[in-house]
Automatic annotation (TrEMBL):
The species this protein was found in: marine metagenome
Taxon lineage: unclassified sequences, metagenomes, ecological metagenomes
InterPro entries reported for this sequence: DUF192, Saro_0823-like_sf
Protein name per Swiss-Prot or TrEMBL: DUF192 domain-containing protein
Signal sequence residues: none
PANTHER family the UniProt entry points to: UPF0127 PROTEIN MJ1496 (PTHR37953:SF1)
Pfam entry (one): DUF192
Length: 167
């Protein structure tokens, strides 16, 4: 009898463990754990519209700020998921020609190269995850904004559009 009772406990325990292992775990999708504690800034992109339209269209990106050498080196490495309207703003003082690569970056990114006048001068669409190829600004930039791959096309962001900082 004691053997049957022990077997019931063992089977029930194994069933409970199986259910726990097969239940999907909800991931926090707000801030990637690698970026907890980083300073953030709301960035506005003012799109250049044809003269036939009277008002400009505005897009907002909540950007993590990479304003030190260590943060620029880390960037979005090891981040598995980035909220749709989030990104990372790399700050370069003084402005310079920069090169970006996707080492240890697991998500596709669009790279917006921004000059000292806050104008997007170049866009590299859909930089491939884990690619070691260097992506150059070719011209001096003060900022690089990385956002989810495909977002520039979806939102119709183009070279010539302006960046407006909230602070």
């Amino acid at each position: 009898m004691w053997f049957i009772n022990r077997m019931k406990y063992l089977v029930n325990g194994l069933l409970a463990l199986t259910v726990l292992c097969l239940t999907p775990i909800q991931a926090e999708n707000l801030t990637p754990k690698q970026l907890v504690g980083w300073k953030q800034e709301l960035i506005e992109i003012e799109k250049t519209l044809p003269l036939t339209q009277s008002m400009s269209e505005r897009i907002f990106i909540n950007a993590y700020i990479a304003d030190t050498a260590a943060k620029r080196i880390q960037g979005l490495m090891h981040v598995q998921d980035l909220p749709k309207n989030a990104g990372m703003l790399f700050v370069f003082r003084p402005p310079r020609v920069v090169s970006i690569w996707m080492k240890n970056t697991y998500i596709s990114l669009d790279l917006l190269f921004i000059d000292k006048n806050q104008t997007i001068i170049k866009i590299h669409n859909d930089a491939k995850p884990l690619n070691l190829e260097s992506i150059s600004s070719k011209l001096k930039v003060k900022w690089v904004l990385e956002i989810n791959g495909g977002l520039t096309e979806e939102l119709k962001i183009n070279p010539g559009d302006k960046i407006i900082f909230s602070n």
